[in-house]
Amino acid sequence: MTRTLFLLTCLAAMVMAMTAVLIRIELAEPGVSALFSGLDGAPDSAKFDRAVTAHTLFAYLAATLLGTTLCAAARKHGAPLAFLPMWLGVILSATLFIVITAAHIPASLMAPEAAPSVAAGADAGTGTGTGWVLYPPLSTAPASLLDLGLTALDVEPLMITMLVHYLLLPAGAMLLLGLYAMTATLHGYRGMMAFGLFATLCVTAVILATPDFGTGQLPMASFNIAALPLLAVLSIHLIDQPTPWVMLMALGLLATLAGQIAIISLNAPFSFQNSMAQIVPLYIFPLGIGWFALPAVILYDRRSRLPDWAAPAVALALTSTLLLWLSPLMFLGRRGQPARYPDYPEAFAASNFGASLAVGLFILTYLGVVILARRAPRSA
Prior knowledge:
Elements: H1 2-26, H2 45-76, H3 83-103, H4 107-110, E1 123-124, E2 133-134, H5 145-152, H6 157-166, H7 168-183, H8 192-209, H9 223-240, H10 244-266, H11 280-284, H12 289-302, H13 310-335, H14 349-375
Antiparallel strand pairs: 1-2
């Protein structure tokens, strides 16, 4: 089952990467390409919005599947209670897959009356700075079966976007549960799985109870609390036995936690909501754990060994290229570039081009890390 889950995780991650490349190619320079235009050549911002939604959904699916894979690998190596989060992850992944499928079935196939109705043409306007052009969506009708179903339930369009953000909660929880399951196989820490279930449940309850939950602004920094015991246990274990996967995950957790705390502290007065910067904290933590967890579970399951310098070098390479990718997005968000919009003024061109190059560099680096983990020799 571990191999099947690993394969499904890789497939979801590949789609996530392809949509990220597609988005960054579109944003590499100002203007709207034919790919995100209507049949008459007029730019259609709804198409770009659907591409961003697809990227987001597959990112959450990949994270949920990866957390499930970690639990399956830990169960294979004797982690107590690991079957509980593993099957929970299977159910959550299947549910996410159904949501993604419904989000990509055209509404017109199920309800011909939901055929697109053309809205008004492009309208020049002013955003933050000058030179913005507003492109309304060419269709005001439900675009997918998911939109059609939610519209039938009188769900507001803003709430539909918020529902997508809510899927981050199970994705982040599964990643943490997977790491707790792997940690429970270390000598002397068999109780970590039970503790992880309790800690993740408590943090999830806290997030659900916060007033901001109803606005779609999830206080995901609360997951830091559940991740700190993991970092402590992995760091202590390194003193006794510097296992490659333990070192990689300890450095990865340290980098992601420090990165998120630094971003939130340095940008305290700034609201990330609806700006290009809104994905930055989430891609660093908790989804950022996945960047390190995928090669770590390969090393863990294969009981591979690496040179002493390899794990720190991998962590440094992933952290550096991730910062090269996300730093321009933070800069653009602070300057006022909105999220989910395919065009921008010339003044934003250099940073967007840099972000597009950095995405390619990160993907190439990540492929190299995965190949290194797969080809690492097994322990005797």
